[in-house]
Amino acid sequence: MEHRTVRANGLDFAYFEEGEGPLVLMVHGFPDTAHTWDLVRPAVAAAGYRVVTPFQRGYFPTEIPKEEAFDADTLGRDVLALISALGEKSAIVVGHDWGAGAAYSAAGLDPSRVKLLITLAIPHPAAVVPTPALMWKVRHFVTLALPGAAKRIREGNLAHIDELVARWSGGWNVPPDETKHVRACFAHPGSLEAALGYYRALRPMIPPSQRKKVTVPAVAFAGESDIIAPEVYERARRRFTNRYEVVRMPGGHFMHREHPEVFLRELLRVLAAERTRSIAD
Fold it and tell me: What is the pLDDT of residue 129?
């Protein structure tokens, strides 16, 4: 499938699109690309949705911003701008990893634009309590933000990308070509540096958009063997004032790739339930 391009929030975003109906915007994380949704997009489109899966800012072939801007609020504004640029007033937003952070921010910045918030592998950031064990598990937050991180990863022939995927989804027999699209993306000048810019933009305090309680209906997919335990997602309930469901999934951080059949079954169930509610309303 050839990608399309749209201008949003001052950048040219590349994206894949499939299907017709209500917009479902699916946002990837790291180390990943829009191809992470290749098994999901056609199934959701077949269920009667217009599914758009963009490459996040800086991820080739999306444009790299001239000035470094990768904070969560900027990512949230990207989501909102993409909805508008695609000709819609609102959308169902699905986000994995950094895409989940962008989705939380979008819902905080303008909840009227997010019909349903669906996140994978990241609980609401305000519910995460740092512990020594957790800090060790997420040590990449520090190592990937260090000066020269991109150079070191390249010198290792991007092997660290595969190491991260294997570590975060420890029980997954990762297919040999699982990271081929990520590697192709990061082969383009500046793209790996941009992707690591998301980590450089992290600050101890959560951003303003994520300090607000989530007022839109929300569903969080939690991997049973992920870095962050499903219990944290349950603890996050106090951050949501609308409907909130935690879907426990087999697998780790890349649960939608590890167990696509289970993920698709649950995702389509969630979407169908929301559609039924919308019709009833």
Answer: 86
Token pair 């993920």 in the structure block, residue:
263
pLDDT at 130: 85
User: Exposed, middle or buried: residue 262 (CB in 10 Å: 0-12, 13-18, 19+)?
Assistant: middle
Rounded CA separation 192/119 (Å): 24
Say whether domain 4-280 belongs to CATH 3.40.50.1820. yes
270 in Cβ contact with 258 (< 8 Å): no
Q: How would you class 33 by CB atoms within 10 Å of its CB: exposed for 0-12, middle for 13-18, buried for 19 or more?
A: buried
C-alpha–C-alpha distance, residues 197 and 69, integer Å: 8
Give the span between the Cα atoms of 260 and 171, in whole angstroms.
15
Please check whether residue 250 is in contact with residue 170, taking contact to mean a CB–CB distance below 8 angstroms. Answer: no
Q: Give every CB contact of residue 67 below 8 A, 6+ residues apart in sequence.
A: none
Residue whose entry in the numeric block shows the structure tokens 């305000």: 126
Quickly list DSSP for 103-129: HHHHHHH-GGGEEEEEEES---GGGPP
Q: Tokens at residue 210, please?
A: 């994520």
Q: Could you state, in order of their start, the residue ranges of all structural domains in the chain? A: 4-280
pLDDT in tens, 216-237: 999 999 999 999 999 999 999 9
Is 106:82 a contact under the CB 8 Å cutoff? no
| Omega within 30 of 0 (cis) for the link into 61 | yes
Question: pLDDT per residue over 145-178, tens digit each?
Answer: 999 999 999 999 999 999 999 999 999 999 999 9
Question: Could you tell me the pTM of the whole model?
Answer: 0.97
Q: Are 44 and 51 in contact (CB under 8 A)?
A: yes
